[in-house]
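Justification of resources, computational component.

The compute hours requested in this renewal are based largely on the per-chain cost of generating structure records like the one below. Each record pairs the submitted sequence with a full structure-token output. That output is archived, and it is also reused by downstream analysis tasks.
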Amino acid sequence: MSEKRYSAAVQTAHDYYDSEDADNFYALVWGGEDIHVGLYDHPQEAIDTASRRSNQVMAELTPGLNADTRVIDLGSGYGGALRYLARHYGCSGVGLNLSARENARARRQNAEQGLAERIEIVRGNFEDVPYADDSFDVVRSQEAFLHSGDRRRVMEEAVRILRPGGILIFTDPMQADDRSNEGLQPILDRLYLESLGSPAFYRDTLEALGLEELKFDQRGDMIAAHYGRVLEVLTDEEPQIAQAVSTAYIERMKRGLQHWVDGGHRGDLTWGIFVFRKP
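The structure output for this chain reads:
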């Protein structure tokens, strides 16, 4: 897929996640399987354990998963969620992701875990998905939609490729419905975004596109819990991490993580699992 079709926000995400610093940081801190918000049972829980719990809970909220289910993960990162679905439910699917570095790591993991035949990793853009209408039983995503400068377009693409009766399930860091952009400006500036999505935006957009909301498992406290835990691990393990990640990147990451923590504590941000069905 031609990169000239990326929006400015998606191009920024591409450049960031395809960097050696970012790839090393996320692999070291998250454990190399996942790159998304975890569900924490307690504040000191390991990030990779909490991240796997997110995969488990999302799978449990997805009706009808079985060996015949074809899934696409939009912004699939290291592919851990698809491997979870393949291993526990027998699903097959596609990981669509911008970063060549992340994709290479995902393919290695798929091969090492004996899942390469069930999971295809494709470099591409969720604003212009390279699949036909009605191609997938499940469209899923975790903490990826925020990186689009045209989220309605992403929703249109998700609905287009979803088969009738299929499920759209996703998470995203969101602006709380009752809050303005003002408190989020440091986060927006760092990501080169004008806004974040909100629960109301996703509901209104997907309802207008014909989908039925089945559930919103809202857990806004996980924003501060997760990014706070990442900041804690980064601080505690900085000497080891600094062997593979530049000092400049680490310092920027510390500042960025603190903005997420502060926004979560103030209630400017929320997070949860949305589940929709296509009639």
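The radius of gyration is 17 Å. The mean pLDDT is 94.
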